[in-house]
From TrEMBL:
Sequence ranges assigned to domain Xylose isomerase-like TIM barrel in this UniProt record: 1-153
Top-level taxon in the UniProt lineage: Bacteria
InterPro entries per the UniProt record, alphabetical: IolE/XylAMocC-like, Xyl_isomerase-like_sf, Xyl_isomerase-like_TIM-brl
Entry coiled-coil feature ranges: none
PANTHER family found in the cross-reference section: HYDROXYPYRUVATE ISOMERASE, INOSOSE DEHYDRATASE
Pfam family for this entry, one: AP_endonuc_2
Protein source organism: Pectinatus brassicae
Protein name: Myo-inosose-2 dehydratase
């Protein structure tokens, strides 16, 4: 990772690692290990609210802990009833996606106000991307983008 980070740096780019369900870096313990083993000047972190909540992690603690290394944010909500169904029935990650376990902010169970508060408090200026990972045949992308935009406007407190 450090080698890739150095190569990216040489091209005026930043290497940002995305923790993700079903991969080698999913849990807080795995994120901690990645951060411990990599140079903060070479490797940054992508924060994904949905993957952390689905993994059962304390998403706010991780955000606070690594805010200085976070260079990209995925704002993704979860539908906890579907996540529970996926776990109870031992369904695949892909099946969970197709069932709609992820959605846009404001359409699931995550309270995004505390997330935005941490980002604001630390003057976060990186990327923030609304992400749904939903079947577009079921959840119209334009309608869900509008839904997310409207919800985020109620959460973000501009100082």
């Amino acid at each position: 990772m450090n080698k890739l980070g150095k190569l990216a740096q040489e091209k005026n780019m930043t290497l940002v690692y995305h923790h993700h369900m079903g991969t080698g870096v999913q849990t807080e313990e795995e994120i901690d290990k990645l951060m411990e083993l990599t140079d903060p000047n070479l490797v940054s972190l992508l924060y994904d609210s949905g993957h952390l909540v689905c993994s059962g992690e304390n998403h706010l603690r991780i955000l606070e802990k690594y805010i200085n290394r976070i260079k990209h944010v995925h704002l993704k909500d979860v539908r906890k009833d579907i996540v529970q169904k996926v776990k109870n029935e031992n369904l695949s990650f892909l099946k969970g996606i197709r069932l709609g376990m992820f959605t846009v902010p404001g359409d699931g169970n995550i309270d995004f106000e505390p997330i935005f508060e941490v980002l604001r408090k630390h003057n976060y200026e990186g990327w923030a991307l609304v992400e749904a990972e939903q079947d577009p045949a079921i959840a119209n992308p334009f309608e869900y983008a509008q839904k997310a935009n409207n919800y985020i406007k109620t959460c973000v407190k501009f100082a």
